[in-house]
C-alpha cells in the first residue's frame, strides 16, 4: 500500500532548510571554517547555568502551566518594559514558547486561513516562508535589496494595493537576519501609520533586540500595540540557543487565541529551561552587553576587510550577520560561489539565494565565531579572491 500521495499538500511547497543543508554539506570539507549558523560562540552566563542545575537538584522536573512559569512571564514583561517601553500584563499577555520558532508557528497557525497572504520583506530568515505554508498561508515576498534592505512605507502601500483584502499579516524582523540591518524610530512610526486601522496583524520578530549596536532597538508594538504580535527570547541575548526558550507578547484578546495553538503544539516548555531563563531575565538584564561589544569589533573587522576586497555591504547595525554582495568580476551565482569557496578555500558562507528573492548575488556570513577563526577565514577569502581574479586575467588574455 502506497501512502506517498496522502501527506499534507502544503509540504510540497516546502524545501529542506537551505542554511542547514549547506552547513551540513560544507562540514564534510576537511579543515573548514564555518561562518554559517547563528550560533553564539559565547557560553550561557554562569548564573543562568547555576539556576538550571539548581532546578534539577531541587527536582523541579514536573509540568509548569501552559502559558509558562509565572515569575518568568513577570520577568519577561518587566524586561521589555524597561528595555523597549512596551507594556504587557504578564498574566494574560505573555506566554513562554519552545524557542522563537514555536512563537512564529503559534502566531501563524492562529491567524491563517487557507489562502491568506502574509507579506515578508526579502531577504528573510528561511523558516518564514516554510511556516507560512504549513499554516496554510501564502508568502508575498517584497524585494528590499534596492532600499538597503529596509522595507519602505511606499513598498508596503504598493504591496497592500496589489493584494488587497487577501493580506492577513506582515512579518517584520528588525534587526534583520540575514542582513544585520535595523530600522529607525522614524521608520517604525511611518510603518505604523500605514498599518494602523487596517485589519492586518503585525508579527514582529525581535529576537535580536539586544544585539543592536550604535542605536536603540525600536519595536513597532510601541505604536500599534493592538495589532502587534511580538516574538522574542533568550537565545541570542543570553547565548541560550539550546535551552529553547521563546517569548510571545500580544494584547489579551489576541493572546487568548494564540494560547490555544500553543497548548496543542507543545503543552508547555521545559521546566528547567524556563527556570534558567527566569534567572537570565531577573538577574541578567544586561548580560548581552559584553557579547555585543565583541560582536561590534568582529563586525568592523570583517566589514573593512571584505569591503577592501570589493564586496559591497550595507554595514550591519545589529545581529551578528554580514550580508555581502559578491564583486561583479567574480561568480555571481551565490550557490556556485559558496561551493567554490568551501571546496577551494575551506571557508563556508551561506548562499544569499537561501534568503528569498532579495538575496541572490549575496552571501551571508555569521560573525558569532571566534576572532581567530574570523581572521583566518578572511585570510583564506583574500587568497581565494586574488586567485580568481588572476585566473580571469589569464583567461581573458
Can you walk through the features of this model?
Its EC number is 2.6.1.-. This protein has 397 residues and is an alpha/beta fold. It folds into two domains: 9-43 and 288-389, Aspartate Aminotransferase, domain 1 (Alpha-Beta Complex); 46-283, Aspartate Aminotransferase, domain 2 (3-Layer(aba) Sandwich). It is 43% helix and 14% strand. The chain has helices spanning 18-26, 46-57, 70-84, 90-93, 99-111, 127-134, 153-163, 185-195, 252-265, 271-283, 288-308, 334-345, 371-396, and strands at residues 33-34, 94-97, 117-122, 138-143, 167-173, 201-205, 228-233, 246-249, 312-313, 321-325, 347-348, 350-351, 362-366. A seven-stranded mixed sheet has the order 2-8-7-6-5-3-4, with helices on both faces. The chain has a four-stranded antiparallel sheet with strand order 9-10-13-12. The longest helix has 26 residues, at 371-396. It is globular, with a radius of gyration of 21 Å. The mean pLDDT is 95.
